[in-house]
Amino acid sequence: DILKWLHSDDFKEKHQLIQENRQEGTGEWLLRSEEFLNWKKGVSSRILLGLGIAGAGKTFLSSRVIDYLEDVTERGVAYIYFNYQDQQSPARILASIVKQLLCKLPSTTRFPDIFNDLHSKLGSEKKPSQDQLRSVLSDVISLFPSIFLIFDAIDECEEGLRTQILSLLLWIKTLGEQVFMFIISRPLADLRDILTDAIEVKLSAHPEDINAYLEARIEQTRPLKPTRSPPLLVRYKDKIIPEIRNSAEEMFLLAKFHFDFLSKKINARKLLDAIETLKNPSSRVNALEQCYKRVVDGIRARDENDDLALDVLALLSLTTTPLRVSELQDAMAVIPGELELDPLNVTSPEMLVDICGGLVEIDHHSGTIGLAHYTIKQYL
To answer: Where is the Nephrocystin 3-like N-terminal domain (predicted)?
Structure first.
């Protein structure tokens, strides 16, 4: 397959996974914002810089923008989801953009001659260089009336690599007036220094987005068959939703951990007491750090599985490359002094995730397992 030769990574599956976890209606406020509308029209700048603090739900907002832009078929839309565990080189980024745009061409449109000639010249084993990919991209862009490129979480790139990528994006911008870019990140000085003419928009979890998320999580606790008494979270949702929303400080990640914390309460008294702790102003200082501490303290307080959970967190915080699920399972099954792995000591992936209290997640697209957010690595 000529396109697979160009680039094997598939951000489409990653995007679909994010879609599945995004609540209906999330991010509509962004599509209505003055900054977004001006950017889409090319007013003052063709670069939109979306800035938000860690845990603000920026990736969900990125995915909503992608869906919105892809609804118009004649547009060329391509996107990159950056990840601190898998650093993307400029050549890989170019290859992915070219591949995605070629996939968007109508079936009646031939691939550019420069691309077909390059494949014939290099063969299936050798990959094109960055300079060769630049030439191909220049020709591909000319086939579309408008091009929209979305780069999510560019702040997760290492600083030196990020500078190279930003230089590449500025070059891509010069390829035509029809090229628009949406770059999403935490607020970083180097972004503003390099993207001096970008339109800035603040990205955060708006109250309406948090409400929709919490409503959906609470509804998921309802049993399939009606019961005499509604579930605990359903009965107290009028208390739960406003308190989590007010204490989440416009962070989706914080809302998630607050909900996970409350959902473990076994009776009304414990639930109401836990809700009261969210009102404590001191709990809002370094709020994410407080959440992570609460989860880790809860793991340590358990009678069993605490050592295994802490070992999982320690290994995932130290690894420099993504671990496959089976690799983590094998590592956790090792018994000191034993020369062979005991298959009876292998823990299921679901259990490894469950005992870590929401701090660990599986990427089913890549088959890897890692920390649920890069800020967890910083905390650990």
So the answer is: 25-186
